[in-house]
Amino acid sequence: MKPATRYTKSGRINIAYQVFGSGPIDLVYIPGWVSNIDWMWACPELVDFLGELAKIARVILFDKRGTGLSDRVVELSTIEERMDDIRAVMDAVDSERAVLFGHSEGGSVSALFAATYPDRTISLITFGIFAKRRYASDYPWAPTDEERQAVYDMIEHSWGSGDMNLESLAPSKANDKAFMDWLANYFRSGASPSAALVLTKMNTQVDIVKVLGSIKVPTLLMQRTDDIDVKIEEGRFIEERIPDARLVEFSGNDHLFWVGNTKEVLDEMRSFISSVNPVQNYEERLYTILGARACGKPLTAKAEESVKKYVHQYRGRIIAFNEEGFISTFEGPSKATHASIEIVKSLRRYNLPVSVGIHIREGAVDESHFVSKTTQRFIDLILDYGGPNQILITQGVKYLLSGAGLNMSLSKTTIDPVNEEPLALFSVIDSLDEAVNDELRPLSNSPKNDSFIENVLQCIDEHLGNESFGVEMLCREIGVSERQLQRKLKAITNKSPNQLISSVRLHRAKELILAGKLNIAEIAYQTGFSNPSYFSKCFKKEFGTSPSIFTQQAQQS
Q1: Mean pLDDT computed over every residue of the chain
Q2: Which residue range or ranges hold the HTH araC/xylS-type domain (predicted)?
Q3: Strands 325-330, 284-294: pairing kind
Q4: Tens digits of per-residue pLDDT, 20-51?
């Protein structure tokens, strides 16, 4: 029986999740590419697999932002934001620690989460994962640019149809029409063609190779030897780089874990889960370190106040501050980079230029309170190359910023003082902000969240019932020009401002229908539609069904 679908907030984004099972530990399943947690229950093979997991664990399913039942308004997200979604769902169900089970592309975010939050991760289990999705001489199993372009073309022209070559994901089911029809519907219900395309392009840029060595939790890697989608050499490559990881190779060529020799897969998972003795406290974890150096003028008390504001806004921690500069730590590179952009802008108002360096590295848990000599030496090296108002990041940071809407270009190549290997430094700017080199506008009085899109969503939410709310008012409250708003939203969500406002209203309306406390006309008025019939027309266009039919389906589920 399908469990109830619930929602929790990750920032301002609604994340759909389900919980079921009676086992003594928690297991969070992180799906690959796109998903739809309701449609999972229409596949008997997947239902059987999940049912077996539920005997040994409390199983937690969720749709990442932009897919499935979660908010579709953000169709472009970073791997770090998806990591935040895992944490938000775990918090919502009071899960302090869990086994992470990542499939395919879901393995990337699982690996980053395990390295960043080892004390919230019991163990890591993966199936058919990759470390890179773009060909390189040191990773020759990933698709070439030409092969990825063919995937882009397929999504754009054949999304969800028989031309998707879905048989390559489950060759053992190629002649099972019912299963293949379900799989096509699963993908179509998991993402729109534009969302799937943006997500696929973002995944092409992800590279977690530098993260692998920082994973200290017990790790089980599983893969079928003749998997067409992800080569077995990729699994072996990952096993070599995660300390004490174990790779189990199964016969067969299915990329989906819930078809083929599933009993062997389940037996391996049961044995691994039962044998792990969780480490209570880890001594090291993955950090993003931000260091800044004043350029010519000492930092003032006002500068310190401004720096603290943005560091705290992006969930960072200041661990050293003086008139010559400061150092802070963050949970991920996206937060650190966006905080640095805001800090540089803010300090320019006081004519206090700084250079900023950002690096991701493994450090002692206590390093959130102090800076080790190794970290200080590394930050000094980066800042020696930085100029006034320049932000430099290392290559490891760059790889994890895919989808962040930033422009990054190679600035310098030097030598890593720790391992004496070549170290590439990249200059980063907010490529969507036309005001970086102009007179900066005053800060908006609206409370800020972790990202531009979340500020936009908050503003729309605050005016949800105001039918006259539109692009002009949104621009005024966010503090950007209409042209800037158009460019940013197109890059981040692939929607125009008006489309986004309408989409947010309709998704909130869907939530109100699921709550079951108001009739359709009342919901229309509360979400900014003065005409219920026009609301019904817009709702059907957005979700493929009328509000009345959706209400009936919600009552029956």
Answers
A1: 86
A2: 454-553
A3: antiparallel
A4: 998 899 999 999 888 999 999 999 999 999 99
Q: Which domains does the chain have, with CATH numbers?
A: 5-275 (3.40.50.1820), 284-428 (3.30.70.1230), 452-555 (1.10.10.60)
Tokens of 360: 């991701």
418 has a pLDDT exceeding 70: no
CA gap 70, 16 in Å, rounded = 5
β partners of residue 103:
127
Contact of 109 with 86, CB cutoff 8 Å: yes
Question: How would residue 76 be classed by pLDDT, with cut points 50, 70 and 90?
Answer: low
Return the H-helix or E-strand segment holding 554. Answer: helix 547-556
Closest CA to 261 of 172, 374, 149: 172
Listed in sequence order, the DSSP H helices in 250-325 are 262-275, 301-313
Give the amino acid at 155.
I
The burial class, CB within 10 Å (0-12 / 13-18 / 19+), for 205 is: middle
CA-angle at 392, arms to 389 and 398, nearest 5° = 135
Check if the beta carbon of residue 501 is closer than 8 Å to that of residue 474. Answer: yes
CA angle 160, 165, 169 (to 5 degrees): 100
Contact 434, 484 (CB under 8 A): yes
Q: What angle do CA 433, 438, 444 make, to 5 degrees?
A: 60
CA distance 350 to 531: 50
The residue assigned the tokens 């939410």 is: 461
Say which residue, 22 or 19, is predicted with more confidence: 19
Q: Which two tokens stand for residue 224?
A: 């079928």
Q: Which range among 98-102, 155-159, 171-175, 300-304 shows the weakest confidence by mean pLDDT?
A: 155-159
Torsion of CA 524, 528, 533, 537, to 10 degrees: -100
Between the CA atoms of 362, 364, 367 and 371, what dihedral angle is there, to the nearest 10 degrees?
Answer: -70
* Residue 101 β-bridge partners: 29, 125
Give the neighbor-by-neighbor strand order of the sheet with 57-62: 6-10, 13-20, 57-62, 25-30, 98-103, 121-127, 219-224, 246-250
Q: Which is higher by pLDDT, 138 or 282?
A: 138
User: pTM of the predicted model, to two decimals?
Assistant: 0.76
The pair phi, psi for residue 246, each rounded to 5°, is -125, 130
* pLDDT score of 446: 40
